[in-house]
Amino acid sequence: MGDATRAVTGTARRAAVVGASVAGGAALGGAVSMGTATYFAHRVITPEHEKKDDVTVLAVDAEAGTVTLRADVQTTSPGRFGLWLDGGQGHARLGEVLEETAAEEGRAHRGTATVTRRLLGVDRGDLGPGPARWNGYFYSGDPTTAHGLPHEDVLVTSDIGDLPTWLVRPEPETDRGDWAILVHGRSAQRAETLRAVPVLHRLGLTCLVPMYRNDVGAPPSSDGRYSLGLSEWQDIDAAMRYALAHGARRLVLVGWSMGGAVVLQALNRSPVAHRVHRVVLDAPVIDWGSVLAHQADLHFIPRPIERLARGLMRSRLSHHLLRIAEPVDVAATNWIDRADEVGHRIFIIHSATDQTVPFGPSQDLSRRRPGLVQTFVWPRARHCQEWNTNPSLWEDLVASFLR
User: Fold this and answer.
1) Each residue's pLDDT tens digit, 348-364
2) Which of 217, 235, 375, 399 fits a disulfide with 366 by CB distance 3.0 to 4.6 angstroms?
3) For the chain, what is the radius of gyration of the CA atoms?
4) What is the DSSP letter of 220?
5) What is the separation of C-alpha 123 from the centre of its chain, rounded to a whole number of angstroms?
């Protein structure tokens, strides 16, 4: 019996105690199905902070300003991207694709398909041949190091403790009294939001970029697990209150991926949500159910097991299996079904080729709430990389909506 089988079987024995109480569990039958469902659910709610290198740098030509990498679906993507170096200690920025070479035509790296991209800069560390990690953020560091915009490090106090937060003030002559709160996605960093800071700064908005629970450097939740926006919204509520207490006239919320799910919960639950003027969402999770079904299909997990996983997350009787303090009701994150509760002006940018979060629910929400919700379907980009493929278009769309 292999290690993986022993692990699944051990989980299955524990799961059997509560299996009968979960709707649909009895019909599935079998300890392995319960174990697989438990594993799938656990992966969904567990932060992934340790990420492995996923690309290979083959050559660097500093004189020509180019980098050659092993070609794959990431490294050949159009646009501008970053590279984490040395386990995240270093960082470089890459521009457009200059050349792609098929495996059979390789010269310096015969037998390997390659792609050569423009090298825009090395922010820190040494860029050389070897493993690296692809970075859709493009920028790294903080607003000062990334954009030369002075920022303050402040603390936003939530129910779980003090959240490290960046505060970027606009030029006095452009200050509109509006504050934008930027919310990053699942297992991401605040640097994910840096792409939006310059356009918001030009528009005269004060930018507030908080960490939220279970981020590296932020207080953890009591169980160290995500609740898919159902608890994280409280940290954004705290940021909204901080902004209002420090002179904000109106609020703008901006969220990426799971950050969009967090924003939607805050709009629905926060007592100060009426102070929100506009909302911008990039590749948002409008319905976690559709995301989980999509991910199950990608990983060849049968739909009944995916539904069982959702049942486990919702059941109070299975909290010890998933090590969660409170149930996670995926149905409460479905804003298609809850469209009548959406009452804010929302602009969604979502790629038609998003491989992680399907864009269909974003379109569906627009259809359900015409006049309030508008979706711009981006023609081609991977998840949360719309800006990367065309920064000027992304910024023009956002600026037009916020004006």
Assistant:
1) 999 999 999 999 999 99
2) 375
3) 22
4) P
5) 23
Would you call 142 helix, strand, or coil by DSSP? coil
Decide: helix, strand or coil at residue 170.
coil
DSSP bridge pairs for 92: 83, 122
Residue 72 carries which side chain, given as an amino acid letter?
Answer: D
Q: How far apart are CA 354 and CA 351, in angstroms?
A: 5
Is the per-residue pLDDT at 6 higher than 60?
Answer: no
- Do 240 and 205 touch, CB atoms closer than 8 A? no
Backbone CA torsion sign across 319, 322, 326, 330: negative
* String of DSSP letters for 54-115: -EEEEEEETTTTEEEEE--TTTT-SS-EEEEEGGGTEEEEEEEEEEEE-GGG-STTTTS-EE
List, edge to edge, every strand of the sheet that includes 206-210. 152-158, 161-168, 206-210, 178-183, 250-256, 276-282, 346-351, 373-378
The two tokens of residue 226 are: 């995500």
Cα 241 to Cα 8, 143, 164, 218, 272, distances in angstroms: 44, 22, 15, 18, 7
192-237 per-position pLDDT tens digit? 999 999 999 999 999 999 999 999 999 999 999 999 999 999 999 9
Indicate the SS3 state at residue 228. coil
Tokens linked to 356: 């992680």
